[in-house]
Amino acid sequence: MSIADVINIIMSGIFHAAILFLVAAGLQVVFGVQKVFNLACGAFYALGAYMGLTLVNILIDGGFPETLFILILIAAGLLMAFVGPIIERGMLKFIYKRDVHFQLLLTFALVLIIEDVIRMTWGSAPQSTKGLYLLYGHIDLLGAIIPVYNLIVIITSLAVAALIGYMLYRTKFGKIIRAAAESSEMSEALGINMKRVNLKVFTLGTALGTLGGALVIPAISAMPDMGVELIVLAFAVVVIGGLGSMKGAFVGALVVGILKSIAISFYPESEIFVIYLIVIGVLLYKPQGLFGRSTV
């Protein structure tokens, strides 16, 4: 294997990791505060992808400069976050105190509902952005061909990670989030409006998921069931990194993204198997994840 092949595999893995981090970060922030296992993260990812595809096609056909399509995708991802408040106020608020099984059933039901909504709205046939992926060209690094779009997504994901870190540790809302993650009951007793916090946190988690879906769409085709595989990968990230840990989401996404890229390059059939193997190993030897807190 040449150096170019190694670079291609690693950079492809980091690109997948950048997308996975956005979705897993949304999963982590929702669980950290609301203690909800949000299986619907995959559905939000799919919604972001389809909205990104739709806005790009409409605006570019209407004369919007093609070179600015990345801004359309970011706007589309953030725009679709409006489903977060609707779901949180309309459904999730009723299950915060319920058993985890109710949370899993409700959020998985949302996956199925949103998948059907996508089929009714956009159809079942795969759809793509028709060549925009390579619009920004590529760079040659020691013989490896790296699409510039991949680098843009990686930088965007790093910027989001930095913004999340700043928000959590440098802003009043971030301090409230961390306090609520420690004890929502104590936070509420101290005068924090947990209804408002829950609404904002779930909206943030939704926005991260829909943004990830919008940014990935130039590189893949949109399909109604695209969120299902993403759920598996996102939870693998969370298990490896540690439930509730944003640092864990970052490291876990890198592990899963690079493993996925290596498996696809050498033996595509083993892609999910290899990831499951690592997940099993983490569960056996470090059940709380690499950066999670031990419950023992």
List the topology elements:
Elements: H1 3-34, H2 41-61, H3 69-79, H4 83-90, H5 100-122, E1 138-141, E2 144-147, H6 148-170, H7 172-182, H8 184-189, H9 194-216, H10 226-241, H11 246-266, H12 271-285
Helix pairs in contact: 1-6, 1-7, 1-9, 1-10, 1-11, 2-3, 2-5, 2-9, 2-10, 3-9, 4-9, 6-7, 10-11, 10-12, 11-12
Which regions contain 5 or more consecutive residues with pLDDT less than 50? none
Structural class: mainly alpha
Query: What is Rg?
Result: 19 Å
* Total discrete domains: 1
Q: What is the CATH first-level class name?
A: Mainly Alpha
Largest sheet: 2 strands, antiparallel
Can you give the helix content as a percent range?
over 70%
Distance between the termini: 45 Å
The H/E string reads HHHHHEEHHHHHHH
Judging by the overall fold, what is the CATH architecture? Orthogonal Bundle
| Strand arrangement across the biggest beta sheet | 1-2
Quick one: overall form?
A: globular
Assembly of the depicted chains: single chain
Kindly state the number of beta strands.
2
- Counted by DSSP, the helix tally is 12
CATH topology: ABC transporter involved in vitamin B12 uptake, BtuC
Average pLDDT across residues?
88
Beta-strand residue percentage: under 5%
